[in-house]
Specification:
This protein is an all-alpha fold and 523 residues long. Helices cover 79% and strands 0% of the residues. The longest helix is centred in the C-terminal third of the chain and has 82 residues. The termini are far apart. The mean pLDDT is 87. It is a multi-pass membrane protein. Keywords: Cell membrane, Membrane, Transmembrane, Transmembrane helix, Transport.
Amino acid sequence: MNSNHRNPVFWVSAIVITLIVIWGAAAPQGFAKIAGSVYNFTTNEFGWFYLLSVIFFVLFCLYLAIGKYGKVKLGKEGDKPEYSYFTWVGMLFSAGFGVGLVFWGVAEPMTHFANPPFGLGVEGGTEEAARTAMRYSFFHWGIHQWSVFTVVGLAMSYFQYKKERRSLISETILSEGKSKSKKKAGIKKTINILAVIATVMGVATSLGMGILQINGGLNYMYDIPQNAGIQLAITGALLVLYLWSSTSGLNKGIKILSNLNLGLALVLMLFVLFLGPTVFILESFTLAIGDYIQHFMEMSFYMTPYKGGTWVKDWTVFYWAWVIAWSPFIGAFVARISRGRTIREMVFGVLIVPPLIAMVWIAIFGGAALHLDLFENAGIAAAVGNDVTSALFVTLENFPFTTILSGLSIFLICVFLVTSADSATFVLGMMTSDGKLNPSMFSKVVWGVLIAAISAVLIISSGLQGLQTASLIAALPFTIILILMCFSLFNSLRKDRKAAEQETEKAIAAIIQKEAAASKSEE
């Protein structure tokens, strides 16, 4: 506790989150009403800002990787990667997606299949609707999402390992410098507080979705009721599990769970792939990849100002806000495990591999569900419309060994939640302990409890919409911070390159001068 008792970032952030928890618990209806109003205002007024910001992050990452800065090592010259590539990707996959991919892997394509994106003129339940559903699902879980995480990871890795700054979001924008003015210190603390609050809200959104899905699965399989009491019990059980994992240390807890998670996901994917409509899944995956590439820029900027509608705001804007909200956590975690890799390696590793895994997941589970509805009238889209949390379990009901598969899925969701939450408590501990790489047990426990508490309050007060609202509100100020991080990173890289070129020119000039002097002496 000693490392936190005088840290204003820790206490201000913790107090703000605690007050939100108390407000939501004491007056859930009033809390939900105000949250809904803020949600509508944010999406209506700033949806365009989210879309432009995220495509900027994509282009920025690609520019750094492909251009002259791609070979810059995120560390000193002798630093080597701490983790093998397979373990590194597994940790990225588990921490980055959490339960979101399991929640939406079937639910999103089936929702778009029944209700295609507004303004495209596509009729629901048709072949064209299925194709559009897969394309937009790939889009929402693809490169754009991971570009946000990549920006934070690159900036934190570069300034922490190359410039030897502390592991804090503020250190990627403002350095200590020679003068330590109160104004600069205040700005840095504000940046870090915003990062902490955004992270808590983003992770709480994922945790809440997972809790709803676990309850939905238990209800579908065993008729266990879907109510606040059951959801609070699930929250408490998960809290104990992820606190145990987080306090056991990064290598012991997170690394083991990440590898287990990746293995379980692969087993489930292969089972559905080979027992389901294999050829249909492979063909739909191929088609969706082509559609994704073809419509990449169109989807990046797609809005409907002339036709009205809220589809883009409800889906794309929410997704971008959600990933921005928990990008401090993912980015800091990526930086923590990526020392010694080059900019090009990190960009292609983080920006390409996890999105590809997500697309495969969506193609297998979403593709299987689409096949069942298109050719067997399974009614999955209708079931998802009634209860979005049941999407995965309704699909698995059409496969052999339904009980085993559903049980494995619930276990997988739990492991996803534990992995994401214990990673978050670790990173939040760092962010509120002046960037210490081994935060205290006290700070990790505090953040673990607060994440669970805010998630429970959001579920009880306004359900899924409340979870979405939390991410959207927290993400808005942090989007500006992300843009500043990009400019700060680019400016520092440019200065380093210029300094290196000047050193090279001096060395060459010295050699030429030395050779000229030697030649003159010989004469």
